[in-house]
Amino acid sequence: MSFQFITAIPLNVWKGSGCFVGIDTLATGLRALGGDVNFVTPGFRFPVYAAKRTLFNHMLRYRLFLSGDTIVGFDADGYSIAGRRRAQHVASIKGVIADVLPYETGLTRASMAFQAHLERMHAQRADLVVTPSRFATLRADAEAFTSSG
Q1: CB–CB of 93/129 below 8 Å?
Q2: Tens digits of per-residue pLDDT, 72-100?
Q3: Partners of 88 in the beta sheet?
Q4: Separation CA 43–CA 36 (nearest Å)
Q5: Residue 130: CB partners within 8 Å, gap ≥ 6?
Q6: Multiple choice CATH, 2-144, 3.40.50.2000, 3.30.479.30, 3.30.70.270, 3.40.50.10420
Q7: Helix H segments across the chain?
């Protein structure tokens, strides 16, 4: 079985932190079971992460080589193509971005609110949503089906 992992999260523990560890662990496990895992990541640098993530996701629509039995998008990544391809699309929501909004202010809050909106669209469009815990499942379910976040 082949998988394409879509993520703008940096693929190292120093910048991608626990998100990277979770993605890498899943890839390692799937490969150990005989799966083929390929990563689709931004091929460019951009100073603002939310802008980079958004541009990367819009560019996914034009990447004709996206294929595989299953496409897995992490958090908001993949929202622009979820539900538009023949392959099964999985939204892997590691933590619900909207949950951090009460603790942020200013531009950080605005950026996170926008990313929470994209994550919500991703969960709504995907064939399947996977979370790491019961708490995240309940939060993702509450966020995915509300329009206010």
Answers
A1: yes
A2: 999 999 999 998 877 899 999 887 777 78
A3: 70
A4: 21
A5: 90, 91, 92, 93
A6: 3.40.50.2000
A7: 13-32, 49-60, 106-125, 134-144
Instruction: Give the neighbor-by-neighbor strand order of the sheet with 36-40.
Output: 36-40, 2-6, 70-74, 88-92, 128-130
3-state secondary structure of 129: strand
In angstroms, what CA-CA distances link 141 with 5, 38, 120, 134, 149? 22, 28, 9, 10, 11
**pTM assigned to the model:** 0.85
Q: Which two tokens stand for residue 84?
A: 């538009």
Residue type, 132: P
Tokens of 146: 């509300």
CA distances to 38, 40, 93, 108 from 68, rounded to whole Å, are 9, 12, 20, 35
Q: Which two tokens stand for residue 16?
A: 């991608």
Residues 43 and 8 sit within 8 Å (Cβ to Cβ): no
Amino acid at 124: Q
User: pLDDT-based confidence at 149, cuts 50/70/90?
Assistant: very low
